Q: What sequence folds into this?
């Protein structure tokens, strides 16, 4: 079985006191093949926050795939935001903004959805470019065959299916529908994202251009692993279990006893054959 930990919105600078150490212990004591960090490692892209984020990443005993979030671009230093928005990310986290990873069963591709600016008032919501969508198939092809294909991004692609719309934000990344169709065309099974500090799963079904078959793409959102900004949830991350042709995602929730795996999966699906 391949185990993957999916964390998001750590927000160093607003983390719960002592929580980072407990989270590191929970991650390092398990046999994770990969730790995914889907953005917002910092609260305001300050140097001190990136130093804490770097120390956290370096303390992990597993490979890490991390993509930036909107909070990882400075909201204060506007000249830096316009000229070199990823300077601190590249210095402290990774020179690569869209990293890849694979093992015998899984291929994962990162997409940077954070932007220095957007053609709308709120720059925080993010975007996927046509070039990013076009490149996806080639990026997966370069990684070779894998039973499970994963895209990692910061911003959400599907809204939570709930009647409680008043308290749960539903703003999706720009070009979300086109991107999901591009993911389906690239035979992506799973999209991991964050931004909303909400834990949920949703499914997009795209009709293939050839043969008229429907290919589902499952979107999994992570809550915040460390931040005090929990938006009605407990701190959590997702544990992805891949084996015997099945992918199951179980939330790991912080309780008085520590980090506990929830027995009921957030979502579970059979892996489709790849041509």
A:
């Amino acid at each position: 079985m391949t185990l993957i930990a999916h964390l998001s919105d750590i927000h160093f600078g607003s983390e719960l006191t002592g929580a980072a150490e407990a989270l590191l212990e929970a991650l390092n004591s398990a046999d994770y093949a990969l730790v995914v960090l889907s953005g917002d490692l910092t609260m305001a892209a300050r140097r001190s926050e990136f130093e804490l984020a770097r120390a956290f990443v370096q303390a992990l005993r597993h490979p890490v795939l991390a993509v930036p979030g909107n909070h990882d671009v400075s909201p204060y230093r506007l000249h830096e935001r316009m000229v070199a928005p990823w300077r601190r990310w590249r210095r402290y986290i990774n020179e690569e903004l869209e990293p890849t990873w694979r093992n015998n069963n899984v291929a994962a591709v990162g997409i940077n959805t954070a932007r220095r600016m957007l053609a709308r008032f709120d720059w925080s919501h993010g975007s996927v470019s046509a070039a990013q969508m076009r490149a996806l198939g080639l990026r997966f092809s370069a990684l070779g065959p894998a039973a499970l294909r994963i895209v990692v991004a910061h911003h959400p692609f599907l809204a939570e299916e709930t009647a409680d719309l008043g308290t749960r934000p539903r703003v999706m990344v720009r070009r979300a529908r086109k991107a999901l169709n591009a993911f389906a065309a690239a035979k992506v099974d799973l999209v991991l994202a964050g931004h909303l500090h909400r834990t949920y799963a949703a499914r997009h079904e795209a009709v293939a251009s050839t043969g008229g078959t429907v290919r589902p793409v499952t979107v999994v959102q992570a809550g915040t692993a460390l931040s005090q900004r929990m938006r009605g949830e407990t701190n959590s991350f997702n544990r992805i279990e891949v084996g015997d042709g099945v992918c199951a995602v179980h939330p790991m929730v912080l309780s008085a006893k520590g980090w506990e795996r929830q027995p009921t999966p957030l979502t579970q699906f059979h892996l489709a054959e790849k041509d």
